């Protein structure tokens, strides 16, 4: 047993979600991603003296929606606070955030692991604003500042220290991205910085209760980096403890080039943010009616869809995971199972053909060329064994993608794709197939029964895939055995 196996990893996350509101958190500046630098900055974003912030209803409602989806307690009254620090990309000299009274408290998120769901506790969710962006690698002499992002609304989701590995962190971020997309409050895109996280990491001897001293890795913006930072940090902490040292509570920076973490600041010289209540904003009040209305707007959520697909529809774990990935896709699938008995055939069609087609053509399910009626008819054709699945996928599906208006059953008929169950025609084909392969027939009759697969393949080729496999197999066997 290696020394590393003696320890357990403990991780808590602070996830920043950038909301997809049209305007900023405390003024009407636009938030369009990729706009030219400093083009979305009014005097409020620039913190001119005398300017005043105003709350953004969508910011507040998005926070409450996420809280409701995660089973948090929604505070009827929450407050904004000022977090003071000096940096070039923070013109006000403070960030408006929520410290003592956040909008959502408690709750949990279900993350999907190989062996099912695991429930991760949420400590709280609070609202805040983003800072601008400092750019150090464009000009050789100067650092540049883009304030377009200053004041963009964020939610910060703080978890309990419930995560145990990099895999679980990955699953958490995946589930969080899926959730904010289901709720339509953010694109959850880590590559564009719409989701970032601070990763708090500690280790403790297995079997012990007390949490170890933790380090916080700041601003991790990709899952690959998160994984590498965790691996490095866990090993560093264990090595330190095993050599008789102590882990110091520190804020760390992860350097993707060297793959190592290095201290930004230690607890002793930790920031003193001098939090105090934001005097320019009133408390955020959410009355019961508003909360009820927001609750009514929540869509079906990933876990309940997963459970319906697995328990009611008897689909496999893997199929259900794929089907729930995207909200609109999942709901479209669900809609197409409602009047249909061919649930398994429908699921296969969505997973094997529709999803790859959408990703290949970079389209969303709303743009899919087949109507519900056509999709249901397609699945039924396969389920009723009128067309073999392989022919349906390789010939009928591409034909339908040309924008055919008729039902798949009609198109299959026109193209001669319906399964050939006419026994006299099939018998003639079987005869032809055996006549064309005398050597194999002899070998089969001398005991090489494995050749049955070969004959089936030949028969399928000769019939261009339309031979009914059951009937074809039966005829082949009969004829081969009679001669025997
Ligand atoms: P702060 O407010 O000082 O940043 P908190 O105590 O509120 O710190 O915790 C912030 C994050 O750190 C939370 O996600 C929490 O789960 C996590 N955390 C707290 N203690 C530990 C620990 N010993 N090991 C790992 N993570 C921890
Ligand atoms: Mg923190």
Summary?
By secondary structure, the chain is an alpha+beta fold. Helix content is 39%, strand content 19%.
> Segments where pLDDT lies below 50 for 5+ residues?
none
User: Which ions and ligands are bound to the chains?
Assistant: adenosine-5'-diphosphate, magnesium ion
- Tell how many strands the DSSP assignment holds: 17
DSSP helical segment count: 15
Output mean pLDDT: 93
| Helical amount | 25-40%
Strand content: 15-25%
Radius of gyration from the alpha-carbon trace, in angstroms: 30 Å
Q: Report how far the terminal alpha carbons are from each other.
A: 62 Å
Counted up, domains total 3
Shape descriptor reads: elongated
Strand count, sense and barrel status of the largest sheet are: 10 strands, mixed
Structural class: alpha+beta
What does this protein look like?
- The protein is an alpha+beta fold and 484 residues long.
- The mean pLDDT is 93.
- The relative contact order is 0.09.
- The radius of gyration is 30 Å and the shape is elongated.
- The strands form four sheets. Strands 1, 2, 6, 7, 8, 11, 12, 13, 14 and 15 form a ten-stranded mixed beta sheet that branches. A three-stranded antiparallel beta sheet has the order 5-4-16, with no helix packed on it.
- The chain has three domains: 3-293, no CATH class; 300-414, no CATH class; 423-483, Orthogonal Bundle (Arc Repressor Mutant, subunit A), CATH 1.10.10.
- It has helices at residues 57-69, 166-183, 223-242, 288-296, 302-312, 317-324, 327-337, 343-360, 372-383, 389-401, 408-414, 423-435, 438-445, 452-462, 469-483, and strands at residues 7-18, 73-74, 77-78, 81-84, 94-97, 104-105, 108-113, 116-129, 133-135, 144-146, 153-159, 195-205, 215-220, 250-255, 260-266, 276-277, 284-285.
- Bound molecules: adenosine-5'-diphosphate and magnesium ion.
- Residues 10-14, 158-161, 200-202, 211-212, 214 line the site of adenosine-5'-diphosphate.
